[in-house]
Write a structure and sequence with these properties.
By secondary structure, the protein is mainly α. The chain has 4 helices and no strands. The protein has helices spanning 10-76, 80-105, 111-140, 144-192.
């Protein structure tokens, strides 16, 4: 014979009811825990990948902008001590850009990301080369007109390309952060249902 609920004692009915309640609470708890873990992974991914990437590219971009200002200052300077101090500052800033781009190599997350980085490294190397080989000798020789011509015709157009690349790279990382956040929202919304 099959026992029906009416054949069970009250104490047995209470035990079954409590057991079902505990099982239900465990299921709800596991679903909540899973959603929390997905959310934590998403937040960590946004923090670790996107924000660090944006900060690193931002450091390179800021140092590069300072290089541009110092290159202009070098061309306008006529005193040897002023030129030497400016050259020293340019080299310090070049080091920051190079270190930031090198640091970013460890943060690359896709082929598109890798392409942005490669273009920035290549173009920055070209910028440094033009500065050192073409503009610097003219500036040191107090040929302000010649130095300014190199700046206008070669360095400025390349600097604009580099700046645009940095800007697009930051936008790329921001879109990745948005995508991670959307995935996180979708994952937690699915767990809630």
């Amino acid at each position: 014979k099959v026992y029906a609920m009416k054949n069970l004692t009250i104490s047995m009915r209470l035990i079954i009811l409590i057991a079902c309640s505990v099982i239900g609470l465990l299921v709800v708890g596991l679903i909540g825990y899973s959603a929390a873990m997905d959310a934590e992974r998403g937040v960590n991914q946004i923090r670790d990948d996107s924000l660090v990437s944006i900060k690193t590219i931002g450091e390179a971009r800021a140092a590069f902008q300072s290089i541009r200002i110092n290159v202009y200052a070098h061309a306008m300077n006529t005193e040897v001590t002023g030129m030497e101090a400016t050259e020293k500052r340019i080299h310090e800033l070049e080091k920051i850009v190079n270190e930031s781009l090198k640091k970013y190599e460890k943060l690359v997350s896709s082929e598109d990301d890798k392409s942005f980085l490669a273009a920035e490294q290549r173009d920055f190397l070209t910028y440094k080369s033009i500065f050192q080989e073409k503009m610097l000798p003219k500036s040191r020789g107090r040929d302000t007109q010649g130095a300014m011509q190199v700046m206008r015709e070669e360095l400025r157009p390349l600097a604009l390309v580099i700046q645009k690349s940095f800007d697009n790279h930051v936008l790329f990382n921001e879109s990745m952060a948005d995508r991670y956040a959307k995935q996180l929202s979708e994952a937690t919304a699915t767990k809630k249902k």
